[in-house]
């Protein structure tokens, strides 16, 4: 009998500092009307002191998840961390979380799949579980993005979209007839590196002569940039491709989905996907209005809030969907 990957707990942590669209309109030429109409975002959270790093946010979410699962840090035998905004250029945040939690010297793996971090992470964890290499796994998805945004009119297209936050899941390998058909049922992942330059932050990096030059800072190249329309179109196509593939190969219909937890990049993207799949608004969980795009952390924050609101009950069929920089995309199908 195959081992199943079951979510034992999920938690999130966001900084307390709320930054409204109105606040942003004081430092750049933008408006609440533009941001709300184009994205659905009303506010986001930013770290309130520059001393808070990505691993520190991830750690808060991880500690909550571990407590909810009734685990101790020494029980964990694998950490998977997903972020595009690590504390250091290297090493990744997985080892920092391993150390700060006081875990044993277990493997700590960092995933660089940007907004698809959660869906890639769950797929990877399911592989560890099915090959019996790990039993109690901590997945941490965390981002501190506010310090790299260009919070002036020059950077407004990106700056209004992103926020800081973290989510964490405790996932356990279980076996036996009682768990048949439970946990992660399937994952579908994809990538297309021809889109790497469409949404990226190139500097600092080894493709830049000198890695990081004084002129890169003075000429504001140390910020992310994006061709929003190209990303938007690709996102809608790939998210629908992912959802229909997962449904088809598991002999399921859209109406069987209990709750869709989509990445939170743009409410218009999620509405298009929802309409094309024929889902009702009650079948989809969105919270982009309150957090903006927290990249790898969007889906675990949605999952944690859905759990708190009682929308994830034993037996609920859950689908995750994500698309982001790379391009990378994918989804997971889970029976709660
Ligand atoms: O998580 C990773 C995946 N990311 C995504 O999926 C994001 C995908 N893309 C998007 O969400 C949308 O393309 C955006 C929200 C980024 C932009 O929306 P849009 O409807 O594609 O707007 P646009 O690019 O057509 O921009 C329209 C206008 C431009 O002015 P002109 O040239 O028409 O005069 C922009 O300069 O809006 C201007 N603009 C802004 N105006 C006020 C761009 N950013 C802003 C801003 N405030 N923040």
Number of domains: 2
What is the fold named in CATH at topology level of the largest domain? Peroxisomal Thiolase, Chain A, domain 1
Q: Compute the number of strand runs.
A: 13
Name every ligand kind in the structure.
Answer: oxa(dethia)-CoA
Q: Indicate the proportion of strand residues.
A: 15-25%
Query: What is the share of helical residues?
Result: 25-40%
Average pLDDT metric: 97
Radius of gyration over C-alpha positions, nearest whole angstrom: 19 Å
Distance between the termini: 19 Å
Spatial strand sequence of the major β-sheet: 1-7-6-4-5
Discrete helix count = 11
Low-confidence stretches: none
Structural class comes to: alpha/beta
- CATH homologous superfamily label of the largest domain: Thiolase/Chalcone synthase
| CATH C-level of the largest domain | Alpha Beta
Using the alpha-carbon principal axes, give the shape. globular
CATH architecture field of the largest domain: 3-Layer(aba) Sandwich
Listing every helix as H and every strand as E from the N terminus to the C terminus, the arrangement reads: EEHHEHEHEHEHEEEHEHEHHHEE
Largest sheet: 5 strands, mixed
